[in-house]
Amino acid sequence: MARSATGQVLPTHSGSAGLDYPGVGPEHAFLNDQHRAEYVSVTDEQALAAFHQTSRLEGIIAALESSHAIAHAMPLAAELAAKDIVLVNLSGRGDKDLDIVRGSSGG
Amino acid sequence: MSRIAATFARLRAERRLAVIAYLTVGYPRPDATPSLVEAAARSGADAIELGIPFSDPLADGRTIQATSQVALKGGMTVARALEAARAARATTDVPLLFMTYLNPILAFGLERFCRAASDAGIDGLIVPDLPPTESADLRRAADATKLDLVFFVAPTSSEVGIEAACRAATGFVYGIAVTGVTGARAHLDEGVLPLIASVRRHTTLPVVVGFGISKPEHLAALEGLADGVIVASALLDAIARSPQDPATQVSRFLRELRSVGPRHTVG
C-alpha cells in the first residue's frame, strides 16, 4: 500500500487506468516477500513507447497495463543470450486504451 | 464490568434506547473535539464514537468522507486523536469508542495503539474494514488493554457471518440499518428487524443500529427492539450547517433527536 507515515493512503497516478491504484494484492506482496518474484516500475512514456512498438512490429495492440511489461522485457531481452526464452503475459487488449494513447501521443 | 457494559445494563433496566453520537475527531476544527464530546454527553448522548479520519473510509458516505477530509487537512493523526480523546475523557464519564480503519492503526502499531487508546480513556474500538475472521491480533491487543472490540452485521450478512460477528464482538454488536454506506436517510430499511432478531439468536450482547439514523421517528421505531442507535452523518450535517458554533448544534440536534414524536413503524 502506498501510504503516509500515519497510515493514510497516498494519491496515485498512472497513464494506465488499471494500474492507477495505491495497493497490490496479497499474492503479489507474498511473492515479493519470498523473493520469488521481482517487481519493477516503468514510466508512462516507456509504456507508451512499448505500446507503439508492439503495434508496429507485431500488429498487436497490447493493453497499456501489458505495455508496461513489454517496456521492461525489451531491454531485458537485449541482455540475455539468443537461446534464452522470455515470456511476456499480454493480459489485456489495448483497443480500450486508444483514447488515452491518442491523448498522450498526439494521434 | 466495562464502562460500555455498565451503560447498557443501566439503560436496559431503565428500558431506554442508548444514543451513541459520532464525531469525526478534528472536525470542524483541529481542537473542536473535546468541547463537542462534553456538549454531546450533556445533551443526552449515552456514549460517543470518535472517528479518527482516514483517507479512504470505505464504509462511509459523503458526509463522513467530507468531515474526514476537513480533519485530515487540519492535520489530524492517530497521535493527535489520542490527545483529543484524553482531553474529552476529562470532561465526561460516558463510554468513548474509537472508530477508524485498519491502516492508521497498523501504521501506529496495533498494540501501541490499544495501549495508548486505553490510557487516554477510550473504552472500545470499531474498525469497519476488519472482518471477524482476521481479527485475532487486534482482539489480543484489545483484551490485554481492556478495550471492547465491536463488529458489524448487515441485512446482507449470512447467518454464518452474523454468528461469527456475534462471537467475535465485545461491548455491543453494530447492526447496519441499510444496504450501503453511512449517511442520513429518510426511512430505515425493513431488513433491520429480522437482522436484530437474528443477532439475538447468537448473543446476549446489546444490538446497536447505525447508518441512516437521523430522526426521532427512527428512534421511536427501534424502541424496545434494539438496545441503541448510532447517529453520525445527521449530527455532522447539523455541525456543517453552522460550524462557527458546533457545540450548540450538537446540543440542539441531540435534544431534538430525543424528543419522542409519534410512533412510526420501520419501512
Structure description:
The complex is a heterodimer of chains A (107) and B (267). Chain A is 44% helix and 0% strand. With 107 residues, chain A is mostly helical. The model of chain A has no long low-confidence stretch (mean pLDDT 93). Chain B is an alpha/beta fold and 267 residues long. The longest helix of chain B has 13 residues. At the A-B interface, loops of A face α5 of B.
- Helix/strand order of chain B: HEHEHHEHHEHEHEHEHEHH
Q: How is the largest sheet of chain B built, in terms of strand order?
A: 1-2-3-4-5-6-7-8
Structural class of chain B: alpha/beta
Helix count of chain B equals 12
Helix content of chain A: 40-55%
What would you report as the Rg of chain B, rounded to the nearest angstrom?
17 Å
Terminal CA distance of chain B reads 36 Å
Largest interface: A-B, 8 and 13 residues
How many individual helices of chain A?
A: 4
Protein structure class of chain A: mainly alpha
What proportion strand of chain A?
A: under 5%
User: What is the helix/strand order of chain A?
Assistant: HHHH
Shape designation of chain B = globular
